[in-house]
Amino acid sequence: DQQVKQNSPSLSVQEGRISILNCDYTNSMFDYFLWYKKYPAEGPTFLISISSIKDKNEDGRFTVFLNKSAKHLSLHIVPSQPGDSAVYFCAASIGSWGKLQFGAGTQVVVTP
Amino acid sequence: NAGVTQTPKFRVLKTGQSMTLLCAQDMNHEYMYWYRQDPGMGLRLIHYSVGEGTTAKGEVPDGYNVSRLKKQNFLLGLESAAPSQTSVYFCASTGLYEQYFGPGTRLTVT
């Protein structure tokens, strides 16, 4: 029973353009959401998070949008850079200290 | 400040053998976690600990045991390895708002 879903296993985008990654969740109790980035042979690293009391959070080139009624969040990367090529995981928890449920990940490839 | 470290980085086991994976963190975090990552499935929680001397089951605990004798260390044990336990294992500890992950252990069971 996967409570966090990333339905796009891969995404290819040109350098300088916007990357949009999507994530859906089924558990309405989730109130804290995170995005992690993972390079090959490394552990995931934290990228950005959002609490359910907000609908948007920005950090430099990264913006996360949360639509609670649709149980949907998205990560926008603008502009995309070659170093952004990685696997991106969406995760959700109940409370910021709760156990994380991860999506399956989206492989992003940024082409020159 | 090394963050979260894992030992070993790679290991090949035969079916039925046992081994222990070691996770260490130097950030004084209370909460620690063990995950496994399999293709197309994201990270799944095996066991976790909310403090020294405590452990609890996660989503996929069968075939694994854990111990947290010291706050900075979290051990994951496989008593009798099976091919289904071939995976990449990640340890993590929780800071204020996010989990910090180790570099992973790639385990192959033949």
Major sheet of chain B: size, sense and barrel closure?
7 strands, mixed
Distance separating the two termini of chain B: 36 Å
Order of helices and strands of chain B: EEEEEEEEEEE
What's the N-to-C terminus distance of chain A?
38 Å
Class from secondary-structure proportions of chain B: mainly beta
Radius of gyration based on Cα positions of chain A: 13 Å
Helical residue percent of chain B? under 10%
Average pLDDT of chain A, rounded to a whole number, is: 96
User: Using DSSP, what is the number of strands of chain B?
Assistant: 11
Quickly give the structural class of chain A. mainly beta
Multimerization state:
heterodimer
Largest sheet of chain A: 6 strands, mixed
The fraction of residues assigned to DSSP E strands of chain B is: over 45%
How many distinct helices of chain A? 0
Mean pLDDT level of chain B: 95
Give the structure's gist in a few sentences:
Chain A has 112 residues and is an all-beta fold. Chain A has strands spanning 4-5, 10-14, 19-25, 32-38, 45-51, 56-59, 62-67, 72-77, 86-93, 101-102, 106-111.
Can you offer a commentary on this structure?
The complex is a heterodimer of chains A (112) and B (110). By secondary structure, chain A is mostly beta strands. Chain A has no helices and eleven strands. In chain A, the strands form two sheets. In chain A, strands 2, 4, 5, 9, 10 and 11 form a six-stranded mixed β-sheet that branches. The radius of gyration of chain A is 13 Å and the shape is globular. Chain B is mostly beta strands and 110 residues long. Helix content of chain B is 0%, strand content 51%. Chain B is built from no helices and eleven strands. In chain B, strand 7 (64-67) and strand 8 form a beta hairpin. Chain B is globular. The model of chain B has no long low-confidence stretch (mean pLDDT 95). The chains are: A mainly beta (112), B mainly beta (110). Chain A binds chain B through residues 4, 6, 9, 34, 36, 41-46, 49, 89, 96-97, 99-100, 102-105, and chain B through 4, 31, 33, 35, 40-45, 48, 58, 90, 92, 94, 96-104.
